[in-house]
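Narrative of activities, Objective 1.

The group set out to show that a structural description can be obtained from nothing but a protein's sequence at a throughput compatible with the screening campaign. Below is one input-output pair from the validation batch, recorded exactly as produced.
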Amino acid sequence: MLQVDSMDDTIAYYENVLGFKCAARMDDEWANMERDDVSIMLSCRHGHEKDKKPFMTASIYIFTNAVDELWDELKEKTNISYPIETFDFGMREFAILDCNGYMLQFGQGVE
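Output recorded for this entry:
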């Protein structure tokens, strides 16, 4: 579950830029975003949490069977963390930063 400052802005970004749909929402408390077989939950920040920027030392890794197609879809309309590349460890992947600064990596295994 990702903490966000603005539920409306984050839902709009995930829908309009990343192609997710809001499958469920409870006011500004939480939302569930879905695309294909991927589900990402969002939560608003409360009370003292609003004084701090969300912080995560990890990334969200999304496996796909269409990484090149996703790259073509997202490369011109997102904040790219690193461009698509095939790595020696057998993954073809790229990463973006969402509207809250969370890193989303998209990868596909290669032979």
